[in-house]
Amino acid sequence: MREENTHREVKPIGGYFEWEFPSQKEFALHDNAVLLNSGRHALEYILRGLGHVSHLFIPYYTCDAILLPLERLNIPYSFYFINENLEIDGDVQLQDDEYILYTNYFGIKDEYVKQIALQYEDHIIIDNAQALYCPAYATHQFYSPRKFMGMPDGGIAVTSVKDYSKELPQSTAYNRCNHLLKRLELPPVHGYNDFKDVSRQIMTSPLAKMSTISNKILTSVDLHFIKKQRLMNFNQLHSMLGPTNLLAISDRITFECPMVYPYWTTDKDLRDYLIKEQVFVATYWPNVIEWTKSDMIEKELVQNCLAIPIDQRYGKDEMNRIIELICNK
Questions:
Q1: What are the tens digits of pLDDT across the range 220-259?
Q2: Which residues pair with 285 in a beta bridge?
């Protein structure tokens, strides 16, 4: 009996401390959430669970990482256009076993998501990577919490497919935290290459469950504060920049929580100017430049719709600085 116990794995007691987190509560933002290692892996999880998908329609205006799970699963796909309101241009007709993917752009298209979820029923997949707080209006949707908080990996699938996550390996992320630690103590430029390296690693890694580190981060952050602060920052920018924004955004809030403030401008130099002034505006998505022609809205959005930061690290002072930079340029 004593010999058997020597071979049994036991939990160590003592030693040095690990990184501690303030709570052990469950993730409560979405019911039946399956926690995975990235948003694109969450899409793969849904597609695998659906079984036979004969064709998937995807928007031109999307990240090329969306193609990775389609290529892994040998799913044929084709592109569709969006209009100036970031909505499906025309009517995409689906046959049996065909699906359509729609992106909740910048986290501001919740109401439209609700509408098209009714239209396409079980045959639409919502890309809520930029809309962590959007309710699960559709039968299938996926989220990317890494776009809303500092996490080394992480994606969420909310779907009706059978939960087979217990069959998946668990991701490990102890070697993917350098960019997060550097961002605490150094300007973002010092950790940007680490951030890109982690993104590449996640992109090529297999489908897996979310790492323990990311799970603890996700269940310890103040989700209510994140939402409240982002909405306050969004509204502050929109109150001043709305009149010159080519993207029509209602003054009535019709979404749960945006990721950024999308500012569509005619000023071709504004992006570089803001970056020079240490306001880092991401480009979504450079690959679309190669996919599209010069007269397409999608190309115009990539080049001239600026994703202005509004996240929970910032408040009125930072938003006022952004407003002054844009209005006084």
A1: 999 999 999 999 999 999 999 999 999 999 888 899 999 9
A2: none
**Which residue spans of the chain are classified as CATH 3.40.640.10?**
34-218
DSSP string, 168-234: SPBP--TTS-HHHHHHHHS-GGGGHHHHHHHHHHHHHSPP-BPPHHHHHHHTTS-HHHHHHHHHHHH
Task: Give the H/E segment covering residue 106.
Answer: none
101, β-bridge pairs: 125
Q: How far apart are alpha carbons 12 and 6 in whole angstroms?
A: 13
Amino acid at 292: T
The pairing of beta strand 124-128 with beta strand 155-159: unpaired
CATH class of segment(s) 34-218: alpha beta
Query: What's the pTM value of the predicted model, to 2 decimals?
Result: 0.94
* Single-letter amino acid, residue 130: Q
CATH topology (fold) of 223-327 = Aspartate Aminotransferase, domain 1 (3.90.1150)
Residue pair 102/88 in contact by the 8 Å Cβ criterion:
yes
